[in-house]
């Protein structure tokens, strides 16, 4: 088969994943997988590392709601060379902190050659509030979602934005213990759940790529900082990785039958394999993919705070211990080799019992 081999890498946000639950710490996994598949589809939680990022030419940066719609077959993905990014700033950001973000955006234009529109400030503070579920997973709410959508619409209709980067002011009065646990590599990202709410709302409403970067007061240095959280300590803004990701994020295609198809378009029936943490198999995207001819690979080593294994949902998967082992499964699958043939013992064929 000559068509490109396509893998989806999913690490759900805000569930304390041991790998991918911190500041872009699943990016090394994505870099390795991209070497063995032709197309890697993943989402901002995997690729965003604050001021750190990596250009993976064959990786597709797809927001979580858009990834769910893609996996269900409702939306397709159309690769682009360059998106014009609209910058949306929360009115609740203080003037000095706003200036830091505008300077980061200008730096991305001057140093990386990215294309941005003029920016928009929301007509009311977004008033983000953070929450946590009984499981410990993080989520949140937006006090003024209509203000967010009005600003996004302005960027699309008046500035010609093809993707939206949102910067919202997040509260300073976060749970101190949760923040310290996260900074020490032991807890859940307290911002992740609320960030997902923001980007989901924009993508669901306007069907264009969107990602979020939180605006926060600068925390004092911590000598015990975990390497997995350290990317967030490098500056005043997390915006660079979002702008880089959105610059080449594929556009969404709606209604396959009504769309002029291009050879490079990607639809869910062209996904060959999907890789997820072994206890986080309840996402809409994975449930959809499990109904297709897609090899599901679950990784035991990537522990999370939730307990939704594939067996409880009737999902057939190849269970592996580590991402290194998952990479080997992908290589074998791409080559058309049954992984059991690589083991020292191979059971004999048995006669099928007739009914």
> Helical percent range?
25-40%
Radius of gyration, in Å, reads: 21 Å
* Straight-line distance between termini: 35 Å
| Large-scale geometry | globular
Output the number of helix runs. 10
Integer average pLDDT = 92
The percentage of residues in β strands lies in: 15-25%
Question: How many domains make up the 3D coordinates?
Answer: 1
Report low-confidence residues grouped into runs of 5 or more. Answer: none
Structural class: alpha/beta
Q: Which sheet architecture does the biggest sheet show?
A: 6 strands, parallel
Q: Which strand order spans the largest sheet, edge to edge or round the barrel?
A: 3-2-1-13-14-15
Order of helices and strands: EHEHEHEEHEEEEHEHHEHEEHEEH
InterPro entries: DUF3326
Protein name: DUF3326 domain-containing protein
Pfam family, one: DUF3326
Organism: Nostoc minutum NIES-26
Written description of the protein model:
The chain is an alpha/beta fold and 355 residues long. It has one domain. Helix content is 30%, strand content 18%. It contains ten helices and 15 strands. The strands form four sheets. Strands 3-2-1-13-14-15 form a six-stranded parallel β-sheet. The relative contact order is 0.19. The mean pLDDT is 92. This is DUF3326 domain-containing protein. It comes from Nostoc minutum NIES-26.
């Amino acid at each position: 088969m000559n068509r490109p081999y396509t893998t989806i890498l999913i690490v759900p946000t805000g569930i304390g994943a041991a790998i991918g639950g911190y500041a872009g710490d699943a990016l090394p996994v994505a870099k390795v997988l991209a070497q063995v598949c032709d197309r890697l589809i993943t989402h901002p939680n995997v690729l965003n590392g604050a001021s750190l990022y990596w250009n993976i030419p064959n990786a597709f940066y797809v927001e979580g709601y858009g990834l769910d719609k893609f996996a269900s077959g409702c939306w397709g993905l159309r690769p682009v060379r360059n998106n014009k990014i609209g910058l949306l700033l929360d009115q609740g950001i203080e003037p000095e902190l706003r200036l830091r973000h505008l300077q980061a955006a200008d730096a991305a234009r001057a140093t990386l050659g990215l294309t941005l529109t003029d920016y928009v400030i929301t007509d009311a503070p977004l008033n983000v509030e953070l929450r946590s579920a009984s499981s410990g997973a993080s989520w949140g709410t937006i006090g003024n979602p209509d203000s967010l959508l009005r600003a996004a619409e302005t960027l699309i209709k008046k500035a010609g934005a093809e993707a939206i980067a949102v910067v919202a002011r997040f509260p300073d009065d976060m749970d101190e213990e949760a923040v310290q646990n996260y900074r020490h590599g032991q807890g859940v990202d307290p911002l992740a759940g609320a960030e997902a709410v923001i980007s989901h709302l924009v993508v669901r409403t306007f069907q264009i790529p969107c990602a979020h970067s939180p605006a926060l007061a600068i925390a004092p240095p911590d000598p015990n900082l975990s390497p997995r959280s350290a990317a967030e300590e490098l500056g005043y803004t997390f915006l660079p990785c979002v702008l880089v990701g959105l610059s080449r994020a594929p556009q969404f295609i709606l209604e396959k039958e009504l769309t002029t198809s291009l050879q490079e378009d990607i639809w869910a029936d062209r996904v060959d394999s999907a890789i997820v943490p072994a206890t986080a198999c309840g996402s809409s995207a994975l449930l959809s993919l499990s109904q297709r001819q897609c090899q599901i690979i679950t990784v035991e080593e990537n522990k999370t705070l939730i307990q939704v294994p594939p067996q409880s949902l009737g999902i057939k998967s190849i269970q592996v211990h580590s991402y290194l082992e998952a990479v080997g499964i992908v290589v074998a699958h791409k080559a058309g080799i049954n992984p059991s043939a690589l083991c020292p013992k191979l059971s004999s064929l048995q006669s099928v019992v007739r009914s």
